[in-house]
Structure formats: C-alpha cells, structure tokens
Amino acid sequence: MTQGSLHPQWIVPDWDVPARVRAFVTTRAGGVSAGPFGAADGGGMNIGLASGDDRDVVIENRRRLRAVLPGEPRWLRQVHGATVVDAARPNEPADADAAFTSDARVICVVSVADCMPVFFADGNARCVAVAHAGWRGMAAGVIQNSVRTMRKHLREPDARILAWLGPAIGPARFEVGVDVLAAMCVRLPLAAEAFTAIGNGKFVASLPMLARQALAQVAVDDVAGGDLCTYSDEARFYSYRRDRVTGRHAAVIWLDP
Predict the structure, then answer these.
(1) Closest to 256 (Cα-Cα) out of 92, 144, 138, 101
(2) Is residue 122 part of a domain?
(3) Domain with 154 in it: what CATH number?
(4) Domain assignment of residue 213, yes or no
(5) Is the pLDDT confidence value at 1 over 70?
(6) pLDDT tens digits, 26-78
(7) For the chain, what is the domain count?
C-alpha cells in the first residue's frame, strides 16, 4: 500500500526531504483498543505490547500498522539509551532506542508516549533513521549518535542531514527536577536555556529546544516540527505523564523503492 492508505488522523511530517522518504506517526485513532487505550471516536491505535492493554488487541493494531507499510517494521526493545542499530541487520541487538537503514525493504520504528520521536533523512535520500528521544535518551546522546551513525554509514562526515521533531510532552507540561537539568547540562552546555524554574526546585523543560541543541552539536540545522504536545491534546495523543496507564504511538520511517 501507499501513504495514501494512512488513517486521516495520523501525522505525516512536513519537512523538506526527497519524495522517496516516507514517514508518519500514529495517533490514538485507527485501532481496536478500548478503555484507557481507546479513542473518542472509535477504537484506539495502541501499539505498545507492554502497556497493559490486551495482547491480542495490540497485535491487531500492529497488523493494521503493517498493512499500510511496504514491509515488516523492525521493532526495538527501548531502554532510554543511546544505542543506534542498523534495522537491516536483524541479528544486531534489539536493545536500542534508534534505528537507521539505507535499504528500501526495511522499516524503522520506535514507540512513544511523551518521549519525542525524531526522524532523520540525508539530503539525497540514501539513508533514514528514527530515534526515541526522551530526556534520558537525550542526556545519553541518542540524537547525536543517530546523526553520526548515518554519516559513518554513508562514509560522508559532512553529509547533510535533515530532522523532524515529532509529538512529545510540551514545554509547558514537562515538569522535572534539578536532576534532569544537571544531566542535560553534562551533554548540552546551553541546556539551562530550555528550563524554566517554577519553584520548589522544579522546572518545566522544553524537549524541542533540547533536541535542537543536540542537533546543532552535530551540525544539523535543517530542523522542522516540535510543536505538537502529547500531554495537552488528550483526544489525539496518548501521554504517560498525564495518564500513567496509556497506549503507545508508532513513529515509522522508510525509503520508497
């Protein structure tokens, strides 16, 4: 099938990449989940097997996802780290939070529910990647590792990489402590600019701003997205911080043959 088959409520990135780069993020809509995993206008599209939802229901949701893709997605066991794997090599460790490919038969995917999915593509559409980038992953360097891995794979240290920041908990909603600020400052010297004090040792932090700082460290300045808040838009998005018991979205990217 083609991207024309996607559910109309799913999100297709608006970024300046070649046409053969295909990507989207699912929302709550389009599945068969119920209860806290459901959607206001029908079944919920929860793809998280470890979310507490009925396993058979999640498998059906994943089947629906697979039906609009040209191949089987390479699922990862996400650990909030910085490991990046080649999705075309199924024997590589699956404990990772980012995947890349230059093979048009291979689908990269991460699952998210407040953490930020970040899509990457080189300017000539030879390689794509996706990262699961919450604050722990960003503090570990998952964004920088994704870009460096792509350039190493392309054998071009200065390859032009473009990025799109997907739906995540927004700057007004992401309340954290000084430990998060300290961890981010180790990786990003300007991280404090993304934090606003709200009293009692607490801050609200901007994941989009932190992501842009991480991208700047690896000379990526073609960056779009970052304006969709999962916490604030309950009708459209799952949010772990808001609901605790909730579903997961899929962020999927591949190269069209």
Answers:
(1) 101
(2) yes
(3) 3.60.140.10
(4) no
(5) no
(6) 999 999 999 999 998 889 999 999 999 999 999 999 999 999 999 999 999 99
(7) 1
Does residue 164 contact residue 119 with C-beta atoms inside 8 Å? yes
Write the pLDDT tens digit of every residue in 170-185: 999 999 999 999 999 9
* pLDDT score recorded for residue 93: 67
Tokens linked to 142 = 């998952």
Strand intervals (E) in 40-188: 44, 73-74, 84-86, 98-101, 107-112, 116-122, 128-133, 161-165, 175-177
Helix intervals (H) in 32-96: 55-67
Distance separating alpha carbons of residues 143 and 163, to the nearest angstrom: 10
CB-CB contact of 95 with 142 (8 Å): no
| Structural domain that includes position 23 | 3-172+219-255
Average pLDDT over residues 162-167: 98
Residue 115 forms part of a structural domain: yes
Q: What is the DSSP string of 165-199?
A: E--B--TTT-EEEHHHHHHHHHH-TTGGGGEEEEE
Contact 47, 28 (CB under 8 A): no
- The pLDDT confidence band at residue 2, using thresholds 50, 70 and 90, is very low
pTM beyond 0.90: yes
Task: Name the DSSP class of 31.
Answer: E
